[in-house]
Amino acid sequence: MRTISDDLMAALMNDMREAARVEILPRFHGITADAVRAKTAADDVVTDADIAAERMLSQTLGERFPGIVVIGEEAVSDDASILSRLADAELAAVIDPVDGTWHFAHGVPMFGSIVAIIAGGETIAGIIHYPVTGDFLVARRGQGAWHVSADGTKTRLAVHAPTPIQEMHGFIPLHMFDPELQVQLAPRVLRFLRTTTWRCSAFEYRMLATGAMSFGFNESLKPWDHAAGVLIHAEAGGYSAVSTGEVYRPTMVEGHLLSAPNRETWERVAAALLQD
């Protein structure tokens, strides 16, 4: 399987810093109403920063990996057929230029940029950049997951230790599930100590990979939301699979994704959420 060298990983991180400096942060500090537009719903928005940062990152990724298939969230929003290229791509990059756009558009500094490198249908590198604080979560397959501070200091990540269901904190975007499943899930979330949603995969995976939260249950499998985060979470010791039990792959397009500290905990959380 193809690997990402230390030098190439550092270059990718620098590309993300530069996209944040040039295209994201100036627009965050000067966000205007005409720079925000709705996509699929009133609270599903896109900004000029999303489009400009995705364009910049797509160009630099193409230069660093000649022939790579680049799949950006905003490009797929314009042409859904682009996503189908991921399944057969020898090498692909998946980009979420501004994850947490709703926060970004409303002046809330809870957003990030996400890049996943996928070879033969498996994520081999995941990078999440937090433009406001300048730090990263990064992982390469088999090499652990790391927090990299703005000054370059690296700290290895570890997921939350297994705990009883009634002591667990988790992310569940209840409002995003189909109404029938919402009715089933609503009373079951009370089995946990606390559940919430932050509307930002970049920060939710940060909390999971650093051990601040126990689990996450997601309604959809968009690869720009999950490919990098699942790898980072796994390299921090975690386990992710769709609700049927099938181990997550970035080429999946249907199902509900559950991430937990390990497989045994995954099974207990799945039972608590999906069984009476």
Overview in brief:
The protein has 276 residues and is an alpha+beta fold. The protein has 8 helices and 14 strands.
Which tags fit this structure?
7-stranded mixed sheet, single chain, globular, alpha+beta, 2 domains, 8 helices, D-Maltodextrin-Binding Protein, domain 2, Fructose-1,6-Bisphosphatase, Chain A, domain 1, 5-stranded mixed sheet, 276 residues
Task: Provide structural commentary.
The structure is a single chain. The chain is of the alpha+beta class. The chain has 2 domains: 6-156, Fructose-1,6-Bisphosphatase, subunit A, domain 1 (Fructose-1,6-Bisphosphatase, Chain A, domain 1, 2-Layer Sandwich); 165-274, D-Maltodextrin-Binding Protein, domain 2, CATH 3.40.190. Helices cover 35% and strands 26% of the residues. The chain is built from 8 helices and 14 strands. Helix 1 runs antiparallel to helix 2 and helix 6 (201-209) packs parallel to helix 7. The radius of gyration is 18 Å and the shape is globular.
Indicate how many domains the architecture comprises: 2
Envelope shape: globular
Distance between the termini: 42 Å
Fourth-tier CATH superfamily name of the largest domain: Fructose-1,6-Bisphosphatase, subunit A, domain 1
How many DSSP H or I helices?
8
CATH architecture verdict of the largest domain: 2-Layer Sandwich
Largest sheet: 7 strands, mixed
Rounded mean pLDDT score: 93
Q: Report the sheet-strand fraction.
A: 25-35%
